[in-house]
Design a protein that fits this description.
about 160 residues, alpha+beta, five-stranded antiparallel beta sheet, 4 helices
Length: about 160
């Protein structure tokens, strides 16, 4: 059975000591999907939203969130991210917005949580900016797409 690394021998939560780990290039991608109605999608695509450029704001929010993950998620290490990217794609046919995050660094611990927090926060920002227009927006399927680096095996899923 696999042991949880954030629980010590006494069963107490603790921060994992990564000081002995090798520094490696570490990357992760995560995705979130947002379902909106036709009116919201139209406003986003036309740039006519009364709060301004929703996608630009969401992109900045996702980047900021990745950099502050260690303050939001207990036991996460503060990381010196070298790259955070947020890509937003409006899929008009399905009234869906795809939010993909990418995080990268050279370090001793992975960036999966940073990628997940970035995608989630960008999606929440879109929700926040559009909730006056549409109350029933749904954020769904937030997940890790891939991660590489470190001692554990690389991970990749298809959407």
């Amino acid at each position: 059975m696999t042991q949880f690394t954030h629980v010590n021998s006494a069963g107490q939560a603790h921060m994992v000591d990564v000081s002995a780990k090798q520094e490696t290039l570490r990357e992760a991608r995560a995705v979130a999907y947002i379902k909106v109605n036709e009116q919201t999608m139209s406003m986003l695509l036309s740039g006519q939203h009364h709060k301004g450029d929703v996608f630009a704001t969401a992109r900045i929010a996702g980047i900021q969130a990745a950099k502050r993950t260690w303050e939001l998620i207990p036991l996460c290490h503060p990381l010196l991210l070298t790259k955070v990217e947020i890509n937003l794609t409006a899929i008009a046919e399905t009234l869906t917005i795809r939010v993909e995050s990418y995080c990268r660094l050279s370090g001793k611990t992975g960036v999966e949580m940073e990628a997940l927090v970035a995608a989630s926060t960008a999606a929440l920002t879109i929700y926040d900016m559009c909730k006056a227009v549409q109350k029933d927006i749904v954020i769904e399927s937030i997940k890790l797409l891939e991660k590489s680096g470190g001692k554990s095996a690389d991970y990749k899923v298809s959407e």
